[in-house]
Amino acid sequence: MIAVALWSVAALLALAPAGVVLSTRPRGSTILYGGCLIATSTLCVTALSDLLYFPHLTPTATLPIGLPWLGAHFRLDALSAFFLVVVNLGGAAASLFALGYGQHEDSPGRVLPFYPAYLAGMNVVVLANDAFSFLVAWEFMSVTSWAMVVSHHREDGNVRAGYVYLLMASFGTLALLLAFGLLASGAGYDFDAIRASHPSAALTGMVVILTLLGAGSKAGLVPLHAWLPLAHPAAPSHVSGLMSGVMTKVAVYGFVRIVFDLLPEPVWWWSIVVLLVGGPTATLGVLYALMQRDIKRVLAYSTIENIGIIFTGLGLALAFKAQGLDWVAALAFTAALLHVFNHALFKSLLFFGAGAVLEVTGERDMEKLGGLIHRMPKTAFAVLVGCVAISALPPFNGFVSEWLTFQAILLSPQLPNWGLKLIIPAVGGLLALAAAFAAACFVKLYGISFLGRPRSDVAASAHETDRFSLSAMFALAALCLVAGILPGLFIDALAPVSKAMVGNVMPHQTGLEWMTIVPIAESRSSYNGLLVFLFAALSGMAASSAIHRLASDRLRRAPAWDCGYPDPNPAIQYSASSFSQPIRRVFGSVIFAAHEIGEMPQPLSPAPARLTVDMRDLIWDALYAPIAKVIGVATERINMLQFLTIRRYLTLVFAALIVLLLVVAL
Amino acid sequence: MSSLQFDIAHLLAGSLVLASFMMLYQDRLYALLNVYALHAGVLALSVAWQAYVQHAPHLYVTALIALVFKAIIIPVALHRIIKRLGIHREIENVIGIGLTMMAGIGLVALSMVVMLRVTPGADALAREDLAFALSVVLLGLLIMVTRRNAVSQVVGFMSLENGLVLAATGAKGMPLVVEISVAFSVLIAFIVIGIFLFRIRERFDSVDVQALDRFRGERR
User: Fold this and answer.
1) How far apart are CA A622 and CA A110, in angstroms?
2) Residue B160: pLDDT band by 50, 70, 90 thresholds?
3) Going by C-beta distance under 8 Å and a sequence separation of 6 or more, which residues neighbour residue B179?
4) Rounded-to-integer distance, Cα B2 and Cα A315, Å
5) Is the distance from CB of A258 to CB of A210 less than 8 angstroms?
6) Do A646 and B209 touch (CB under 8 A)?
7) What SS3 class is residue A373?
8) What is the pLDDT of residue A443?
């Protein structure tokens, strides 16, 4: 099993230098993405069969690379297998999409060599069984993705995005390095040795905080999210899909691996930290998303929201586990992992949709799109499925995982700890708010981009995208539906992971009649995606056939928005900014310090009236700007050292020597 | 080791420190060079005494190198350089003599404290020798820091190196190859700095290193 996985990773690594050669050939990108598709599919099937049929085997392998006295250790347990499935499902879908999308890349030499290396890096992170291999692969993944973020370096803002990304990635790796350093102090870098060691309570607490900083900065937890909405949209769309859908999940894997697996039994205050970060991340992420006009930025901010939901689930699992309620912890943990899987599916799908729109129109600004449902109906359908799924509407998969998270939240009164009892419902409120905003956000994204009339010439002359891209999107959309109507299969597949990490499993789901899922007990709550789907489909068909039978079937086009005066200008339609204006007025003045500046010209003046909205990112202003300023001032001061006279340098050396001698002497 | 042998070693090493102090307050270049020659001569004597005490004949070679190169050839060469550069009348002092001497005394005290603290296990001769050697090194650095003229900075550097040789010979069992390589590296440094001096002189009509700073457009 693990041999197949490692050989596939080696194949991906071998494809990376081949990409340099292939990028100059006319069919090069097809060969490369085809190779990636084969390798990731192999890995996905291997990991899936491992998870489904041999979840209790944990094959290991040691390669004589890396640190000379350590070697590189790899291990394929249930958790690794699950995340391998997520990584490679996303990787395979992105490769399939790129078979079509990648043809239009104007500088393939900047993407092709890094793409397989990036996939390999993510796989090695998930497979690694010692801290050294883990960190090297983690950094490898960061650097290769950075290279693709700056691949279109001439576009506005991409270089800055790459710079911020690189800084934050270094910060995250530093935090993880310190965490592993603390863990390794008593045991060494091998994960097996760390598992067997018994670190002190103070040390484990610091490791949890450092891991939250390190993995959280990669996953995009507020307030460490600043790089994410800059970097994810800047990459080519299939890479954006991978970064948002998959790489953030690798960060979640890092958190789960350290906090749930390597550390001993959790303490209740860990969960408070995680919950207090997770809940606000969800709400703030989606509020940011609502304020954007750029499709890919909306999707990137929505990733932050979903990471918040996942971390809330993990925090709940920690809370219940620490208080001895294993069976609820299993529910929360399974919900979080299911959301990891679901988000990988629909976020990749939506980024591919955005990529298809970008490819045919060259436009990411929603205010310039519109009416695409007539010009690219198949893409529009796939994106609609993604939007419904991410808005957590039944019968799609997003609903199942969020519903399970809420089931765990509703069990919080059983906790003996009063702090948790009070905090968890508040976090639940934040999640509910986030879910509502997410629905509004995706109504806006879909409504403004795909419905209505085209707002620009490029949108009016758009056409359907190629069949590879479409097949990737439809495959993901179908998986979204399957995971939504048959969630029991997925919950049962996650049982070994939950067993290994929190020590308990959710009740067995398959075999219940009509594929119902019952997270706790039949008397309490149950959900049947299949019946909801059948009902929705049947009632929808019945309603549409009734309308077609009873109403006139003559196609009739009438002027829209004909209120008072028929204006042919499509700019008079509802716009993205106007859609989000009510929410901006309610929340924006506090969270974004938003205020509207109206310029009304004097009577008889021919100047146009203007309304501009000024919004600030308060987290950036409060956290990042001061740090940048301090570093700037400090470097300016230190820079003077570079231009001293020879005698002053000698004096400095002399003074340093004297100080050191004084230290020795006293 | 008899106490007389110890006393003489002590005396010679102490004289080296004294010679360093003398260099600190020389404000004419020729006088500085003469004191440097004295410094190197005392070093040669001290090394020769160590060779006699430790029964290490190879140290006589070191002493001879010190005497020939450092006490004769280098001072003579520097004399000629100064004459050719026409700077034998220059007087320079950055900090007042009193202050410099006070700093020098402080440095000697510091090196005594450091060495006596970190080498309690070593034998007495080596301890004293190392303490004096560190004083000479620090005083050499102080000379370099308080001078502006490139020639006197070179002399400061050479006296610092004398301190290193003293330390190397004080510790028993130091192989000759180390000393030769140290001496050789100093010779190379001397040649490089000598050439450098003429280049500076050619370009700026002065060997005052402030000319370099002015050239770089920096404020002092």
Assistant:
1) 35
2) confident
3) B62, B65, B165, B168, B169
4) 78
5) no
6) yes
7) helix
8) 95
